[in-house]
Design a protein that fits this description.
Elements (H helix, E strand, L loop, with lengths): L1 H6 L9 H15 L3 E12 L5 E6 L4 E6 L1 H4 L11 E11 L4 E11 L2 H17 L18 E5 L4 H13 L5 E5 L7 H15 L4 E6 L13 H9 L4 E5 L7 H5 L2 E2 L3 H8 L3 H38 L1 H44 L3 H40 L1 H6 L4 E4 L16 E6 L2 E6 L12
Parallel strand pairs: 3-5, 6-7, 6-8, 8-9, 9-10
Antiparallel strand pairs: 1-2, 1-4, 2-3, 4-5, 11-12, 12-13
Helix pairs in contact: 5-9, 6-7, 11-12
Function: Bidirectionally degrades single-stranded DNA into large acid-insoluble oligonucleotides, which are then degraded further into small acid-soluble oligonucleotides.
Main location: cytoplasm
Organism: Kingella kingae
Length: about 450
């Protein structure tokens, strides 16, 4: 019905009031769906539903406005009677009463439009000059020796920042560079405070901050003087201006942007409690590592000490191996002898069968058999003598035999063998290994080799 009404010649038929209001609303919505209008707030009322209704007027006319609850909740500054404002919204007809009305989507103070234009122009120019490039931004120090703050002494932001720094890192000195942060000429004072910190080099990082406010309140941080001072500062700069939703040009040029002054303080200050926990974790890991290394070393010492205390076991194993080899040699010799005897017996049988000079051959065979037996027994005796000689050498090299001759082995408390008297110190405890046991002693006097025979 509405589309038919819009396309017909409105003067060709009679319309109802509802049809007229619908047609007018459609025409206005098509032509004025998103416009800015300036004026003064008049007859401001707030309904129980949370919606605002008022008239926007100038010297010659007025228009009804509706600001719904969900839009009003986004306003930075609440509406007041008599405020000069600029509103953005769509124009339509309130059908129930046939009244001309603006449904508002955005509200700002009168003159903010020019400020936004200045903001965008300056932002574009400074960005083209490279002041916002990530390549020029500095890294914040992990452990600053001193922290600087550029803000007003009367600002609540200063109290928040100092409180946060004292809580997180009370050991770090704080230096405040006071400056007005609002009002005419405040941007020059802010720039001078930043450059003062830059020239003095008293701090390792600088916080430039103030609390929240309107666009006009924060405007000093959008001025070129402030932005250029931050860009020229060789100290790492953290901006903490306004609330999380506020963005100034100082945020773009700063090395790090914090959503609030308190967040800026947290960014530049190491958390002492977290550092202590980290140190405790490192200490715990170091203790575990040392305990493992100690246990490994103790096991190794026990193994070496066990080998030193029982050298006879190795000698017994070697003697057992020698007996095995001797038995094997004896068995091999007997086997070889039996084999030779068998071959001789075969030859005897062959000779007896052929009956040549049997007696002479038998005597030769007997002589050869006797010679072979003598050679085999001689070889066995020679091998046994070699085995006995090796056994004597092993016994002579045994530490226990050395101890039996009156010698002793001196060891430190860690099991190390002492070879040089100069390696000892007075009072050091030692263990002396003797042939029939061991004793613990303590160094009472030291003498050189030459002094022993004086």
């Amino acid at each position: 019905m509405l589309n038919d009404t819009m396309t017909m010649d409105l003067f060709a038929q009679t319309l109802s009031v509802s049809e007229l209001n619908q047609a007018a609303d459609a025409l206005l919505d098509n032509e004025f769906s998103d416009v800015w209008i300036s004026g003064e707030i008049s007859n401001l009322t707030r309904a129980a539903s949370g919606h605002y209704y008022f008239a926007l007027k100038d010297d010659h006319a007025q228009v009804r406005c509706a600001l719904f609850k969900f839009t009003a909740a986004r306003l930075a500054v609440p509406l007041k009677e008599g405020d000069a404002v600029e509103v953005r919204g769509k124009i339509g007809i309130y059908g129930a009463r046939g009244e001309f009305q603006i449904t508002i989507n955005e509200v700002r103070s009168l003159g903010l439009g020019q400020l936004f234009e200045r903001y965008e122009r300056l932002k574009a120019r400074l960005q083209a000059e490279g002041l916002f490039d990530e390549s020029r931004k500095q890294t914040l120090p992990e452990h600053p020796k001193a922290i600087g703050i550029v803000t007003s002494l009367a600002a609540a932001a200063l109290r928040d920042v100092v409180s946060t720094l004292k809580r997180r890192a009370p050991q770090i000195p704080i230096i405040v560079y006071p400056t007005p942060v609002q009002g005419a000429g405040s941007e020059q004072h802010i720039a001078q405070a930043i450059m003062r910190a830059h020239q003095r080099r008293e701090v390792d990082v600088l916080i430039v901050c103030r609390g929240g406010g309107s666009l006009e309140d924060l405007w000093a941080f959008n001025e070129e003087a402030t932005v250029c001072a931050i860009a020229a500062c060789t100290l790492p700069v953290v901006s903490g201006v306004g609330h999380e939703t506020d963005f100034t040009l100082a945020d773009f040029v700063a090395d790090v942007r914090a959503p609030t002054p308190t967040a800026a303080a947290e960014l530049v200050s190491p958390n002492r409690a977290e550092q202590l926990r980290h140190v405790q974790q490192l200490w715990s890991r170091a203790q575990q590592n040392m305990t493992q290394r100690y246990r490994y070393a103790a096991q190794k010492v026990d193994f070496l000490a066990q080998n030193l205390k029982h050298p006879q076991q190795k000698l017994a194993e070697q003697a057992k191996q020698l007996d095995f080899l001797a038995q094997k040699l004896h068995t091999s010799s007997l086997h070889l002898l039996a084999k030779q005897q068998y071959r001789v017996a075969q030859q005897v049988q062959i000779l007896q069968h052929r009956r040549p000079n049997i007696q002479n051959k038998k005597q030769q065979l007997d002589w050869m058999q006797a010679a072979l037996q003598r050679a085999m027994f001689g070889l066995i005796e020679s091998r046994r003598q070699q085995i006995d000689k090796q056994n004597q050498i092993l016994n002579a090299m045994s530490p226990l035999n050395i101890l039996q001759r009156g010698y002793a082995i001196v060891q430190t408390g860690r099991g190390q063998v002492v070879r040089d008297a100069n390696d000892l110190r007075l009072g050091q405890k030692l263990a002396i290994r003797l042939a029939d046991g061991a004793v613990d002693v303590q160094v009472a006097k030291q003498q050189n080799q030459a002094d022993l025979f004086d």
